[in-house]
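Review box. Two proteins, two foldings.
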Amino acid sequence: MFERAAMLFLYCETPVHAGMGTSLSVVDLPIQRERITNLPIVQASSLKGVLRAEVKRILEQNDPKANDKVQVLFGPETQRAHEHAGCVSPHDARLLLFPIRSLVGVFAWATCPFVLERFKREAKAVGLDVGWDVPSLPANSQQAFVTKSSEIIADGKVILEEFAFDAQKNDKADQIANWLKEKTFPESDEYEPFRNWLPKRFVILPDDAFRDFTQMATEVITRIRLNQETKTVAKGALWSEEHLPSETLLYAPIFISKPLAPNASQLNLSSAGDALKLLADLNLDRLQIGGDETVGRGIVKVRLNVPTS
C-alpha cells in the first residue's frame, strides 16, 4: 500500500511529442490521449522511464551507490524484474492548463471545470489542500470565466482562435489562478514573469469547448528526411507529428510505498518517507519527454510539490 505521495508538475518549454505510434488520421504520428475523454496525456510508463534515467544521472555524479538506489526506487532492470518491485509509482501526466491563441494578450492558459474537478480529486489523494471550489459552467455554454485582472478580454469577449466566448469575471477564477500561480508553476527566477501573467491570461472554458481545442489546436509539425545524394525528400520520408504546444502545464501524482529491495535499509531507504526525501533532495530541474530529442523537443521544467505530513 502507498504510504507517501507528491505531485509532479511539468511545464512544457518546447513542443512535446509523447507519441502513440502510427495512425490512420490526417496526422501520421499523434500524441497519447485518454481513451474516454480524448484529452492529451503522457503515459505513466513513459514518465517513469524518464524519471529513472534522470535520477540515475544525478546520483551518479557523486554517489557510488547510485545504481543500487535507483533499483530500490524504480525496480531492477528488465532481466531481474522478478526480484522486487520499485517503490516509486508515477501516474499518467494529465493536462491542467492548455495554451490557446488569443486575439488580445497573445495567448490564454485555458482549463475547464472537468479538468479542475479531477485535479482537485487527485490533489486530495496525494494530500494537497487546494482550498478553492470550481465554478459551475454548463458544458455547452458560450460563457468563459476569467479573473478580475484579465487582459484577454476584447469588447466583453474572450476570442480564442476563431471562437468567441462571453467573458464573465469570477471570484473563483481568481482563487484558482492565484493558487496555480503559487503552487504549480516553476519557482525559479526566470519564471517570475510567467507566474505574474497567469492570472491575467487565465480562462475557464466549457468542457466541450476545451476538449475541442485540445483536439484541434495542438501543434502539428511536418518533417522530412533528405536523400543525401539528391538533396530531395527521400521516398516515403515525409510525415507529420502532433505535439503538445509550448507553455502547456501537466501534472502527475507520484505514490510511494515501503521499499521492497533487500538492501533498502543499508542504503538508508527503509521507508517510503526516505524514498520521497531522496527524490525531493535531488531538486529535479528539467526532463526530456517523448521523441525528437535530437531536434530540441520534449523539454519540460518540473516542480515536485511534496505535501507536509
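Next protein.
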Amino acid sequence: HPGKEIPASMLRTAQDSVHLVAATIGFVSYAALWAGTLWGTVLRSGWATSRLRHQTVYSVHMHVILLGLTLGIVHGIVQMAAPYGKVRAIDVVVPFINRADPIGVGLGVVALELMIATALSVLIQRKLGYARWRALHSLGYLSFTMVAAHLLISGSEMYPAPVRTAVAGSWAVVVLAGVSTVAPVARMPRAVLDRLSPRRRAEEVTVAVDPGK
C-alpha cells in the first residue's frame, strides 16, 4: 500500500535472498570461466585438435566462455537489485569507485570489461591479424586472475578455508596450464631430451664397440 512502511525484517529477507541468488550466479560464472579458459589452453596447445575436430574444440571453448561472461554480467545486475545494496549502477561500469569494497568490486569490473573486449575481438580478428589478436586474447588469463581475486576479496562465502583453497587451486591450475603453452617453456622438455640424447647414443655405441667379443 502507498505510504506503508516495509518491515525491516522483510527487507533483510529480501536482501539475503538477492545476495544468495547473486552469489550462486557468481560461483557458476567462475566455474564456467575456469572451464572455458582451461579448455582454451588445451585448444592453444593443439593437443585436442589432434583427436577432435578444430571447429568442435573451438565451439566448446567459445560457448562455455560466453556462458560465464553472460552470468558474470547477470551477477553484477543482480547485485544492484538488493535492498540497501552496496553496489550502485555506476559501480559496475567504472572500476574502483565502490565505497564499500573498491578493490574487490573494481577487479571484478575490470575483469568483466576485459572479457567483453576479448570476446568482441573475435569479430575483428581478420583486421587485427592473427598475431595481434592472439596477444589480445591472451589477456583472458589476466582477466581470469582478476575474477579469482574478486571472488577471494569480495565473496562473503569465501571465509571457509576449503572454499578459498578450491578457488586458489583452480586459478593455479589455469595459470600453470597457460604457462606450459608458452613457446620457450613448451620447448624445454624437447631441449632437455636433445641434450641427453647424444649421451645416450654415446653410451649405446660404447656398449656395442666390439660385437666379436
